Amino acid sequence: MKTGTVSPIGRHELKVSQVLNESGELVGELPGIADDRLADMFRLMCLGRRLDQKAIALQRRGKLGTYPPLSGQEAASVGSAFAMNLDIDYFVPQYREQLAMFHWGLPLSTYLLNRMGHPAGADLPANGRLWPQQVALAAHLPHAVGQAWGLQLQGKPGVVLTQFGDGASNEGDFHEALNIAGVHNVPVVFVCQNNGWAISIPWEKQSAATSVAQRAAGYGFPGVTVDGNDVFAVYAAVAQARARAERGEGPTLIEARCTRMGAHSTADDPTRYVPADYVAEAERRDPIKRFRIWLASRGLWDDDREQLCIQWCDEQIEEAVRAFDATPRPDPETIFDHVVAHPDLRLRRQRDEFRKMQEKL
Fold it and tell me: What are the pLDDT digits (tens) for 181-225?
C-alpha cells in the first residue's frame, strides 16, 4: 500500500495507507481478489447506498424506528468483511454494520424487522458466527474479545472481527477491551470506522489524540491507519491483521478513515453542524464512485452491468420490504419477553399493569 497524506480530520493531518485514490487510480499494491468477488463487493456496497434511501423513506413513514445510514462508509464495512473467512470467523457488530451482517448471512428482511423493534428481527443465522447488533456504544467490544479469548482457550480455529465508530473509541469499554485483548494476545481484529463525527461532535472535541490507531501501542499490539473510503486498502489491512491473528500473534487495531455522507442517524440534522466544505469533500472521496471507475478501467464494469446491479439491489430491497410488511405485528406484551430468564416481582407487576392498560384500549 502507498502511504500519503489524504485524510485531515480535526486539527491533525495524518498519513494513511491507500491503494485506490479518489480518482479511481491504483497507487498501491492490489490485494489478490478474484474478479467475481470484486463484483460481489461492489454490488454489496451499492446495496447499502440504495438501502439507505429506502430505509430513510420507511422511517419517515413511521414504519421503521431510528435508522443509521452508512453512506460513505461502504468500503470500510465491505472491505473488512470480505477479508475474513466466513467458515470459521465471527463478526460482532455495533449498529451501523448492516452490510457486514448481510455478508455473514443475515436476511435483509430480518434487519428491517430489527429496525422496527420486532422480536423476529433478533433472529440470527444458525451457525452462530454473527452476533446481535449492539446499540450501547462500545459495549460489544468486550464481547468480541471474550469470543476471541474463548476460541483461544478452546484451541478452536477462527478470528473475530468487530467494527465500531470513533465515538465508541472514546468510551471506557473500548479501552478495557483492548487492554484485555493485548494482555491475552487474543485473535481479534478491531476496525474503527472513523468518520470524524460522534453524532455532531467533531473528532477534535472527542480526543486530543492524532488518531485512534496510535492508541494500540499503549496496549501492546499494532495499530494501522488506512483510507476507509478505499475498499482495497481496508481489505488489505484486515487480511494482514487476520493472518497475524491466525498465526497466534494477537490483535490488531485498524482505523479506517471514512467520510460520512449525510446524517449520523434519522434522529439528527447534519446541516446544523456539518460545514459545507465537508459535504464537498465527502462527495470527492465517495468510495463507490472510485471503485466503479477502477472496475470500468479494468473492463469489469459497464453501463449494462450497472443497470443489472441497480435492478438486483432494488429487487433485494423490495423483496425484503414485502416480507417485512407480511410479518404479523407482535403482541405488545412481548416487550416483556426475553428481558431476563426469571422475571422478578417488579417486572411481573409491570407486565400485569401493562396488560390491564391494553385491555382498556
Answer: 999 999 999 999 999 999 999 999 999 998 999 999 999 999 999
Whether residue 184 lies in the annotated active site? no
Indicate the pTM of the whole model: 0.93
3-state secondary structure of 171: coil
Catalytic residue among 43, 260, 285, 290: 260
Q: Which of 165, 42, 188, 44 is nearest to 104 (CA)?
A: 44
Q: Is 273 marked active-site?
A: yes
Name the active-site residue from 49, 242, 244, 264: 264
Chain center to CA of 163 = 5
Q: Is 198 helix (H, G, I), strand (E, B) or coil?
A: strand
Active site residue 95: no
CA angle 256, 261, 266 (to 5 degrees): 110
- Catalytic residue chosen out of the listed positions 143, 184, 273, 351: 273
Cell numbers of 310, please? 441497480
CB 192 within 8 A of CB 109: no
